[in-house]
Amino acid sequence: MKPSQFRWKLAALMFLISFIAYMDRVNLSVATPLLMKEFAFTKMDMGMIQTAFFIGYSIMQIPGGIMAEYFGHRRIVAIAVIWWSLFTSLTIVGHSLFSFIIIRALFGMGEGPVFPAFSNFVYKWFNKSEKGTGMSYTLVGAFIGPVFGPAATVALTLAWGWQASFLVFGLIGLLLAGAWYYFAPNTPRSSRFVNEAELQHIEDGVDTQEAEKKELAPWKDFLTSSQFWAIGIQYFITDYIMYVFLAWLPLYLMEAQNFSLAKMGMAASLPWALLCIFTFGSGYLSDKLIARGLAKSKARTLFGSVGLLFCCIALYLGAVATDPYMNVLWLTLSLGSLGFTFSASWAACIDIGGKFSGSVSGWMNFWGNVGGIAAPTATAWIATNYGWQAAILATAASAVIGILAWLAVKPDIPLVRKEQPSWEKAV
Questions:
Q1: What is the rounded end-to-end Cα distance, in angstroms, of the chain?
Q2: Which helix (H) or strand (E) holds 279?
Q3: DSSP characters for 330-364?
Q4: What's the CA gap between 178 and 101, in Å, rounded?
Q5: Which domain holds residue 290?
Q6: What's the pTM value of the predicted model, to 2 decimals?
Q7: Is there a single domain that holds both residue 247 and residue 378?
Q8: 123-163, pLDDT tens digit by residue?
């Protein structure tokens, strides 16, 4: 009997949900000029509205992971997508700064649990040699949003007004939530679309009774683990660099490199396109290397640290480049290189977290979004006081911290071990 391969169909659904999640974030950015004109909002007002999302999103990372482990990814993802889709649609009823802030914060709270829940899904639905590839689907779905999102949102806005994109993507989200609840039970053993051959492949080497047991993660042990802190620190740096690109790349290209609006649009999309390619490719490649016998510690650590190293070098070369097109080339390679680190980060959460991968990934993504909150303000301050080149060089220097943190992640050592090593017993 040939394996049914249904898990990859769910990976495609996970990709679509992640894509819509980021499209919903892009909608507000595209609508910003229209909202400023209609409601007399200032740039500071719009910054507060955007920040409200990240606050709501960040505070739900760890609770989202815990809930996914205890109640199952099926229910948590479906509820989260319905929640955020409703508040995406409710954006059109905003009428004041306060109302937009509240709606955006609640929208962020809805998106918060999804990525940690997806980590729990990948742990339960994919073979140990496929987890990096599995997580790559959700990451690529997220990163491809900035590539295609603005064009789709602009088209809807021009045709039916800024409210249209919020309503259309809200409706799409509700449909995807229903599809996830129907097709993605908490375990592959519960799915009528998974045959015995695929089930055996997924569960190869897994203690299914232990994996399905409901229990809370040992947070006291986690918080005293250097691995736990290391994976959070490296992701703080990784997301910090990514959000520098997301927040300031368009303006940087226009102010520092004198790109026109049309040329900027094309140049600003190239780094995100390469990030998608490198994220998926590195996840697939690392799984293949592990399947052939390479230790997880080497595969994940190599990809995670090398991605940051290449990013650091390319950022430096971009900062000192005198030709605008060489600058774009190095910036594209810089953000693209982070694909190796993003893929390794989420796979490492599953490696060290095991059945508690939802909690571990929630912790990691929480710190990543703290970096996301810090990046726009810190970069703006450096660029204002010392210039754009200094801002890019400072971003490049931050990668060194992430590289050092990767040395302490140790993806081949689970955070929760069934039996203590002999040296620990002796102590």
A1: 51
A2: helix 261-291
A3: HHHHHHHHHHHHHHHHHHHHHHHHGGGHHHHHHHH
A4: 28
A5: 217-416
A6: 0.82
A7: yes
A8: 999 988 888 888 889 888 888 877 777 677 778 888 898 88
